[in-house]
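Why do we bother with a discrete structure alphabet at all? Because it lets us treat a fold like text: something you can write down, compare, and reason about line by line. To make this less abstract, here is a complete entry for NADP-dependent oxidoreductase. Read it the way you would read a sentence in a foreign language you are learning: slowly, and without expecting to understand everything at once.
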Amino acid sequence: MQSRQIHLVRRPSGVPVAEDFALVERALPEPEAGEVEVEGLLLSVDPYMRPRLNSDQPLDEAMLGTGIGRVVRSRDAGIAEGTLVRHGAGMRDRFVVAAAALRPLVRDPDVPLSVYMHALGATGLTAYGGLFEIGALQDGEQVVVSTAGGAVGSVAAQIAKLKGCHVVGITGSDDKVAWLREQAGIDTAINYRTQDLAAALAEATPAGIDVYSENVGGAHLDAVLPRMNVRGRIPLCGMISTYNGAGEGVRNLSEMIYRRVRMQGFVSTDLVPLTERFVADMTGWLKAGHVKYQETILDGFDRAPEALIGLFDGRNAGKMLVRLAD
């Protein structure tokens, strides 16, 4: 039995290209006691992967990453064959791993499996915890969300709207603007590629900004800071404008001083204690139709590099996923 893997074969210069990656086959070992063999079903593709390619991701090894799979052989009494699991085994279509490294996935039959990779997965938890735990969101506040058409931003914008907030989303295409207004139901959406961002924000936030969900940095952050209200909060989960080595610096950080703005970085694993409450709330919102989502799914394991590259030119609507099997 073979395991197909996506390897990084050279460090990208700027935006990654297909030649930076290779599809490699490796022999799959037999599971030993306490181990299981997993067939991959879905792979998550996320912007955070890009900075890792500079140094953290070893060359000529399976790319780091997370996904959902199915146990097809088990030598551990605690996990049965056929069990759906979350994994962090990276970009491999089949692998053998210690059963203890997996998290069984308890799926609501009324929710598609793919949703557990975004709205009910790490990106959904990032949006939820970023607003409530890091951003200390209160009902009725003034909220701005960057990358509002993406996996984190689209959920954050809708959660804020559910809490009675005035919500402005920033995105990069007219199609995403239309979806945010017509489907997600937020108050205003701005296309930063075709509009003057600072002027559009000033018009859209007459009462200022209490919470800014930040995933971009650079010119976005520069435009937002002068609009922040006193004691505003900025939960910071990404800086996508800098990931490919380019991007503009932030000139307005001094605005944080007299506005007493708090900006705090965080990652989704910080929010694990919120998981039970998050899953209950989000499952209810999804099933009631209060939270809508978009997902871009590329079929075929070999398309994983294409999916990652596509994140940086806006080819995804919502969450980017690669489907390996049903």
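What the structure line is telling us, in plain words: The domain at 122-270 is CATH 3.40.50.720 (Rossmann fold). The first helix runs from residue 49 to 52.
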